[in-house]
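ok so for the tutorial part 2 we go from a plain amino acid sequence to predicted structure tokens. step 1 is just haveing the sequence, like this:
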Amino acid sequence: ALGDYAQGMVKILSDKKTDKLLGMHIIGPGAGEMIAEGVLAMETGATTKDIAKTCHAHPTLSETFREAAMAAHGKPIHFK
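step 2 — the prediction. this is what the tokens look like for a chain of 80 residues:
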């Protein structure tokens, strides 16, 4: 269980036509460490589908980044 670390959010902004990551908002514990994955994705031209296909350990804070990428396509696992 993540306890207090379960509070926060990740929001991904992507280009509707190309699906490339344009930016993100990360709020909560661990945000300073999690932002690195988003920066890497932006620098390499990754799409939200690329992020969604990448394995993220469970239960971890980093899996929220994958969940946000999946939500960009209307397919989140843990949220509706």
